Amino acid sequence: MDQPAPRALTEPHPSRLALDHPRRAEILAAHAAALAAGQAGYLDPDTGLFVLTAGFLAGRGTCCGRGCRHCPYLDGV
After folding, report:
1. What is the secondary structure of 7-76 as a DSSP string?
2. Which of 2, 22, 38, 72, by CA, is between 20 and 30 Å from 57?
């Protein structure tokens, strides 16, 4: 089992969601709402794709290596 990175599940690694992304606030709000509702993911307001939440990914217990936006295991923040 992997250990989650030392950051809040609400904060993605900057390499997965840039701090200057033009829709960052919208994306983070959608992610936070999905986390609060206990949902596995949300529809990305930028692309329309289904994105898994950090909570769902943490429940897996390990990083899948697919570059998930909200990967809770990606370290370095």
Report:
1. S-TTS--TTTS-TT-TTHHHHHHHHHHHHHTT-SEEE-TTT--EEE-HHHHHHHSS--SS--TT-SS---
2. 22
